[in-house]
Amino acid sequence: MSDESRTDTVPGLSGVGRGGERRTGRPDEARRAVRRAVAERCRALHRPCDADALSDALLVVSELTTNAILHGGGITDFRVDVVGPDVRVSVSDRSDALPAVAEPVDLQGRRRIGGRGWSIVCRLARDVHVSGLPSGGKCITALVPLL
Question: Whole-structure pTM over 0.85, yes or no?
Answer without folding.
Answer: no
